[in-house]
Structure formats: structure tokens, C-alpha cells
Design goal:
Radius of gyration: 24 Å
Strand content: 5-15%
Largest sheet: 8 strands, mixed
Order of helices and strands: HHHEEHHHHEHEHEEHEHEEEHHHEEHEH
Shape: globular
């Protein structure tokens, strides 16, 4: 009889969810409330909720209750078509003025920058306390002496321990602290390339890398990538046979904008190609800690010839205001330290020491657990919003980590054309053409789930969807 009751209750709750009585992410009534309203025992309710949890209809949050799961998992998802429309060849990099406008607005990861700011998490408040304490300690020494060129030793030790959890063993003296990941990639390119050299990148590519290639006078070879498996190894092999490639810049874990992760076997093939053709691999690991289900090992862990330069930062996984990153330079370690002395000289001591103590006390691990859950929830909310408002013809990939979704729209749409029109409405796009030096991805768009999908942002996406459906947006 009890089995019949719990299954009957479970079916009633499923019907309520599917009818829309309880929306995705909404909290169900408490166990006692359900028992009272449905006139069943508490044990029956618990058993029914366990059944719903096993079937994926609800999730449980410790000390909070049961919540309706995202319904986006039932949607038909069509991954974007990433086949290149340009022939494989080296080209000079010239970025559009649009890039500078987006960066000046500081809105690359927020479709609605004017939206109400969320309250900072307790973990970030704790981080600021650590930095404040470090600032007060031995302030006279910090004011009168520059930092070690490698950076604070205790921080390098903590970074080494972080990588050990991802199956990469590093000596702290292999690590050099930088002013963010962009600065690290800049020094990696400066140390290994000369103007006119060819650099291969996955396409679509992070526009920050395109900016660096342009400023350093380096040619780019855009290697097609797929949202599921990252860079096309066969295309990379063909390019390496045809042209001299000095460096390869890749993001193996949750690349922006595609969210792709490179399978381990493909990473091994990339290492073998680099060894055979004497190619420097510059690994951008800025999203490496942001896997929802698992944290992938860096490609550096397969490095048999010490030719992988590993770059990372705390900006995406902790705070953008914390301009602290790192570079593991491999064969070019000494040259990179010299370059840091010339371009940066030293890093902020108090910030490094405060961050080191924050890491050592386990605060960063606790922050990551919470942050990953938040990002996954916000990803699902964004997908639900796309499914609710967007035309049926869009295609997108659901990433298992990172910060963004790569959306393909109908071919007649050029997302860059409407950037400034939408700015007047307070909506900031990140058009697809920013992710290519060859004018590809005109009908693509990167949407971030880094910020909560509050009603204002949800409404911005609704407006965006309506605008793209209008005939005036046809080229």
C-alpha cells in the first residue's frame, strides 16, 4: 500500500511540474507541508521525493529543501556548425574597432551591464580580509622593496598544490607570477615568436589572443574546432605539414566561446605534432577550475619535451579585480623571467600573500564548490530562457564548464550590425565576428552565464530574440 501511495504522489508531483505549476529552479513545499496538503505520511513524501530525484525531476539542496530541476535537459539541442568558411592559410590580424568598444565598456561577459549588481559572496569578503591583513603586515618592507621576479614563494607553492589535484606536478620554482592570464600569454608569445611568424589558434578563437597577435605582428592560422572535441587535429596536422608554425595557442578546458574540451587522446596527438614540428604549445588554462562535473588535467601534464607553456589566472574563477596570474615557461622559463623584469618588474606583494593564505586555509576550494554550482544553475537558466524566447532555428552547445554558450543564428543575420543599436537599449552583445581574424562567424553570438539570469537579463534576451526576428535585421 505504501509503495502505491508514494508512486501515486510522485506521479502527481511530476504532473504539477510538467504543467508549469512549479517552474525550473523553484522550491517545492516542505516535506511536512506536502504531507499535510496531500494527506499522506512524511515517509511517503520522502520516498516520493527520492523517486523524483532519481528520475532527475528535482534536486536537493542541503538545509534548504527540494527544487525543480532544469527542464532544459529535455530540449532538442542542435550544436552549432563550426565548419570553416575560409581556406586554411596564414593571414595578418586586424581587429575591428568594435573590439575596443566592448572592452572599454567592461561588458564582455554581461549582456546587461546596467543590471542590479549582486551581493558579493562571503568567500570574496573573506579574500579581501586576507589581502587587507597582508597589507597591514610588514607594510614598510612592502613599500621599500620590490617582489621576487618569480613572485611570492608561498603563492607559487599553493598554485603547485592546486595543479597536483589535477594530476600535474610542478616545482614552485617553475612558476612565475604574472598580471593575469593575458599578460602570461603575451610573455609566452614574446619569448617564443618574432614578427612575421605563424601562430596557429583554434577557431573560433579568444579575441584577447587575436589582439596580442595583432600587436606583436604575428600571422594567424585559424584551425577549425568543434564544440564537443575542440581543435581539429587532422586540420592542425595538415597545416603543420604545409607551413612553418612557431606556436599553437589552445584552451583545452572549456574554451571561450565554444565551451569545448579536448579529449585526452587528442591532447596526446597534439603533443606529438608539436614535438615533430618543433611547435611551442601555449596553453590557456584560465577555465581549468570551472568544470561542473570534473576538472580536466592540463595538456602540460602530457608534455614530454618541456615545450608546453602553461598560462592561468584567478580572474575567471575568483575575481576579475585580482590581477594575479601565472606562467610555467618550460624551455623558455629564464627568458620569461627576464621579460617580466623588463615589462612588469614585480607583482603586488600584499595581494599575493593575502591570496596565498586564502588558498592555504581552504577558502578557495570552498569558493569553487559553491561557484561551480552557481554557474551550472545559471547555465541552465540561460538555456531555459533561450528555449523559451529564441527562434527554433538557433543552434547551440551545452558546455560542461566555463562561462559562456556559443549560439549560431540563421545565416542572413550579422550580429555585429546591430551592436550599437542594442547599446542604446542597454544591451551589450559579444558578436561572433570578434572570434575570428578572417571575418568568420558573422551569424554567431557568445552569451555568458557568468551573471545571474535575473528578470532584467531575461527580458534583455527576450528583446534580443524579437529584434533578430524582425525583417530589418536581414542583410
Amino acid at each position: 500500500m505504501t509503495d502505491t501511495l508514494y508512486r501515486q504522489l510522485a506521479n502527481e508531483l511530476i504532473a504539477d511540474i510538467e504543467s508549469g505549476r512549479w517552474q525550473s529552479y523553484s522550491r517545492l513545499p516542505s516535506i511536512r507541508e506536502l504531507a499535510k496538503s496531500r494527506n499522506v505520511s512524511i515517509n511517503t513524501v520522502i520516498k516520493a521525493l527520492h523517486f523524483l530525484e532519481a528520475k532527475g525531476f528535482v534536486t536537493v539542496k542541503h538545509k534548504s529543501g527540494y527544487y525543480v530541476s532544469s527542464q532544459s535537459r529535455t530540449a532538442v539541442v542542435r550544436p552549432p556548425d563550426t565548419r570553416s568558411t575560409s581556406p586554411l592559410k596564414p593571414v595578418e590580424v586586424t581587429l575591428p574597432k568594435l573590439f575596443q568598444d566592448i572592452m572599454v565598456r567592461g561588458a564582455a561577459f554581461d549582456i546587461l551591464p546596467s543590471a542590479e549588481r549582486s551581493t558579493p559572496s562571503n568567500n570574496l569578503i573573506i579574500l579581501n580580509r586576507h589581502i587587507g591583513r597582508a597589507t597591514r603586515q610588514q607594510s614598510n618592507i612592502k613599500a621599500n622593496y620590490y617582489d621576487n621576479p618569480l613572485g611570492d614563494e608561498t603563492l607559487r607553492q599553493q598554485i603547485s598544490l592546486q595543479y597536483r589535484e589535477r594530476y600535474l606536478r610542478l616545482d614552485p620554482d617553475e612558476i612565475c607570477i604574472t598580471s593575469g592570464c593575458q599578460n602570461a600569454i603575451f610573455m609566452a608569445l614574446m619569448s617564443t615568436c618574432q614578427p612575421g611568424d605563424n601562430v596557429a589558434v583554434e577557431s573560433p578563437a579568444f579575441y584577447g589572443v587575436l589582439q596580442l597577435l595583432e600587436s606583436l605582428g604575428l600571422n594567424i592560422i585559424e584551425i577549425p574546432s568543434h564544440p564537443d572535441s575542440g581543435i581539429d587535429v587532422e586540420a592542425l596536422t595538415a597545416a603543420a605539414r604545409r607551413w612553418s608554425i612557431k606556436a599553437l595557442v589552445i584552451t583545452p578546458s572549456f574554451a571561450t566561446p565554444s565551451g569545448a574540451c579536448i579529449p585526452r587522446d587528442n591532447c596526446q596527438q597534439i603533443i606529438e605534432i608539436a614535438n615533430q614540428k618543433d611547435i611551442v604549445i601555449i596553453e590557456d588554462d584560465i577555465y581549468g577550475e570551472l568544470g561542473f562535473q570534473s576538472q580536466l588535467s592540463p595538456i602540460k601534464s602530457l608534455d614530454s619535451d618541456n615545450r608546453v607553456i602553461l598560462c592561468g589566472s584567478f580572474s575567471k574563477c575568483l575575481s576579475r579585480d585580482l590581477r594575479i596570474g601565472w606562467i610555467i615557461g618550460g624551455q623558455w622559463h629564464t627568458k620569461i623571467i627576464q621579460l617580466k623584469l623588463v615589462t612588469l618588474l614585480a607583482s603586488n606583494q600584499a595581494q599575493q600573500q593575502g591570496l596565498a593564505s586564502y588558498l592555504a586555509e581552504g577558502c578557495f576550494r570552498r569558493h569553487l564548490i559553491s561557484f561551480r554550482q552557481t554557474l551550472q544553475l545559471q547555465r541552465d537558466q540561460l538555456i531555459d530562457t533561450l528555449n523559451q524566447y529564441w527562434p527554433d532555428s538557433i543552434r547551440y552547445h551545452i558546455p560542461e564548464g566555463g562561462l559562456a554558450i556559443w549560439v549560431q543564428l540563421p545565416a542572413h543575420i550579422n550580429t555585429a550590425n546591430w551592436y550599437f543599436d542594442l547599446i542604446d537599449q542597454g544591451i551589450t552583445l559579444t558578436p561572433g565576428m570578434l572570434f575570428s581574424a578572417e571575418n568568420q562567424f558573422k551569424n554567431y553570438l557568445r552569451l555568458s552565464f557568468n551573471r545571474p539570469i535575473i528578470p532584467a537579463r531575461k527580458n534583455a534576451i527576450r528583446k534580443l530574440a524579437k529584434m533578430f526576428e524582425m525583417s530589418k535585421f536581414k542583410s
